[in-house]
User: Which sequence fits this backbone?
């Protein structure tokens, strides 16, 4: 065993200081987020050690190892006793970090109980199970942030239930909507992400199969009931007990890929809307504290939204790699399993960072209701042309109503006059209540009802 480099310290949670190679220098989206600590090299190392210690404890409990071995391995399984860099370098020899770690842990435990380290397991058992621990710990942080986000969005929805704004389709003004309904949609996506994460997290399984998924070594060491052994191992780590070893049955990884990519996309929708509506020439929304520019002192960039949007763009490709790794040959794969490690950790980090950024984004979001209302007049009243088509058809006939509105729409732009003003000059509609029909605030359909229904979801 090589002692930890004093210049690269690891705290009790397994996270490393800023001199480590995975500090996130080029990853401001997750650097210093809670997920950075649970996905660091040190945190992964601690999860590997937790897995090894749990395996020895369970075997001792079942009479397959002495009690002293359980105590010795548990005591030695502390990340701060191991050199992460050395393990990473030596992992090249066998293709994974478990091989050198087992050697170092065995040495740390000592001659008497060293033989009980990693007994019966294969490297993939340990690394897969540690990955489930890292995922579980990180998803718990993501869920906490998503809960904060949905609460903050619920407040925004309530405050702006009837705040009228332009609804936009294909980038253009369409019909009026409300900011309350838009924010209710954001919250719905966040809750969808929460539900998917909870379902996946609660089903993440331990991995225990031995060399080729038969648990043969455990029976050779005296285990009479390997199903009970696997279940006890899973319980010891707070994971689900798998029906089968899943060395090449990668449902847990695919499930993680799906829920993480979905969550990134859900948060990305919020960020993309904010980025659009926070443009200088729109200014209907603004982040609470924008970021500065290295060259332009006047800038207040929507940094939180930018980082979330970046995560949403990366996540699908990372998930695709994980889905591609499902095509894993034989009982243990060459390359497919190995291809999962980095993209899965990147996904956990990206989503963890995006969820944390979303808390700050939504908490500080500034809504400019007056600007939203002003923008409804940019089309000189044409934003309610759909309503007028419906209301005037019985008065003028469908064909005449359409032709009239088409002509008046052209004139609103060429003459710079409002649709209501032009309609008032049309004799056939002199008895129509034009003030009400041309008021955008009175044409939001069922927005209020839909918003209220969305808020009922908990």
Assistant:
């Amino acid at each position: 065993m090589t002692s930890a480099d004093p210049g690269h310290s690891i705290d009790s949670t397994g996270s490393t200081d800023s001199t480590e190679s995975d500090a996130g220098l080029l990853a401001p989206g997750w650097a210093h987020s809670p997920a950075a600590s649970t996905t660091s090299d040190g945190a992964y190392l601690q999860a590997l050690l937790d897995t090894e210690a749990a395996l020895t404890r369970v075997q001792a409990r079942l009479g397959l190892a002495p009690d002293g071995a359980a105590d010795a391995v548990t005591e030695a399984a502390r990340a701060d006793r191991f050199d992460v860099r050395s393990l990473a370098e030596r992992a090249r020899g066998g293709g994974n970090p478990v091989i050198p770690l087992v050697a170092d842990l065995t040495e740390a435990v000592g001659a008497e109980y060293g033989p009980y380290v990693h007994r019966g397991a294969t490297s993939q058992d340990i690394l897969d199970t540690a990955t489930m621990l890292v995922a579980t710990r990180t998803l718990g942080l993501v869920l906490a942030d998503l809960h904060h986000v949905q609460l903050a969005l619920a407040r925004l929805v309530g405050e702006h239930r009837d705040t009228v704004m332009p609804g936009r389709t294909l980038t253009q003004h369409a019909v009026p909507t409300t900011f309350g309904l838009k924010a209710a949609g954001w919250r719905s996506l966040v809750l969808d992400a929460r539900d998917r994460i909870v379902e996946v997290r609660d089903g993440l399984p331990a991995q225990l199969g031995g060399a080729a998924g038969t648990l043969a070594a455990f029976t050779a060491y005296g285990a009479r009931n390997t199903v009970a052994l696997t279940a006890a191992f899973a319980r010891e780590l707070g994971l689900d007990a798998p029906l089968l070893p899943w060395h090449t049955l990668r449902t847990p990884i695919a499930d993680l890929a799906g829920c993480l990519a979905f969550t990134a996309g859900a948060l990305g929708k919020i960020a993309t809307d904010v980025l659009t509506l926070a443009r200088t020439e729109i200014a209907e929304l603004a982040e609470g504290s924008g970021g500065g520019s290295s060259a332009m002192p006047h800038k207040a960039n929507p940094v939180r939204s930018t980082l979330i949007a970046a995560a949403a763009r990366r996540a699908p490709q990372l998930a695709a790699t994980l889905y591609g790794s499902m095509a894993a040959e034989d009982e243990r794969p060459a390359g497919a399993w190995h291809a999962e490690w980095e993209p899965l950790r990147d996904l956990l980090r990206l989503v963890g960072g995006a969820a944390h950024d979303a808390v700050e984004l939504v908490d500080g979001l500034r809504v400019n209701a007056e600007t939203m209302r002003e923008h409804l007049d940019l089309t000189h009243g044409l934003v309610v042309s759909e309503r007028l088509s419906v209301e005037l058809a019985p008065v003028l006939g469908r064909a005449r109503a359409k032709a009239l509105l088409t002509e008046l729409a052209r004139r609103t732009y060429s003459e710079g006059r409002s649709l209501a003003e032009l309609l008032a000059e049309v004799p056939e509609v002199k008895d129509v209540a034009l003030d009400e029909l041309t008021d955008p605030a009175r044409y939001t359909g069922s927005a209020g009802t839909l918003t209220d229904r969305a808020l009922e979801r908990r």
Summary: The longest strand covers residues 172-178.
